[in-house]
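Raw record, unedited: Reverse transcriptase domain-containing protein
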Amino acid sequence: MGSPLSPLMADIFMDNFEKQHIVVNQNILYYYRYVDDIIICWTGTRRQLDVFLNKINRVHDKIKFKLELEQDCSLNFLDLTITRKESSHVFQIYRKPTHTDTVIPASSCHPWQHKVAAFYCYINRLFTVPLSKENYLKELNIIYQIAVSNGFSKNLINNLIKKKQKHVIRNSLYAVQPQSVHRYVSSLTYLGPISEKVANTLRQNGVQVAFKTNNSLRNICNSKDKLDIRHKSGVHKLVCDECHVVYVGQTGRNFETRYKKHFAAYRNCNPDKSHFAKHLLDTGHNLANDHYFKVLHTCNKGLRLCVLEQLEILKSNNNTVAE
């Protein structure tokens, strides 16, 4: 868990498991798996199915399968309801009983691309899944209802459908798509109309803009205790209590540890460990109290930390003891 290789290794393991123990069964007409959801068309008897299930559940202690049979010739798989009808399958869109019609409202302060993203998804599914005419119209009415419930008009859905139809026709007529010109992509926090103006200016100069928002679930639902600023790293300054000379420095460790190093260097008369301690020892000044220690920027170690330190040194260049 947590490793980028975990999903890949799990998929390789399951692929090998399936080839050795599942797809070799002669009673399986077809077998499809998406992550941990599997659908099988079984041509044998119920008793043979139970025997097969018990067999694959004994292969590995950590790999267990559960069985869900069709009800009235229908089975829900992912976002589809698949109905067995004579020698064919009939598809329709499945939504859980807890499903709501809520998407990003039209009045929300979000980029337009974010607002219509859900409808792009619904319409793409509408064209991709082989629905009957009746199920197509039923799903289309649901999409209309979702749009109206969230402040959008039906014309928006109609325009998106026309756009999708043109895209499908273009792909069917032209097998080779023209290569898009590589553009530099920049991320920009969305703050309203002003962000749109900035984005238009950037696009005119060949910079493709992708909007982002600050009100993410990670920020809203973060229940972790906030780390005290003294326990972070970054750029800090110390002020001499007697001559008001300013020391600006950076630290990759936390500020509290770095302040103790300054104090230890002064107390042990070791000026090589701290430029600020050297100043105090050379001038005979006393070490200032803890409140003269100020955090200027919090930042992890790297190029940005060095740049921030140099900027703060330039700001206080007239009266600064640099690291």
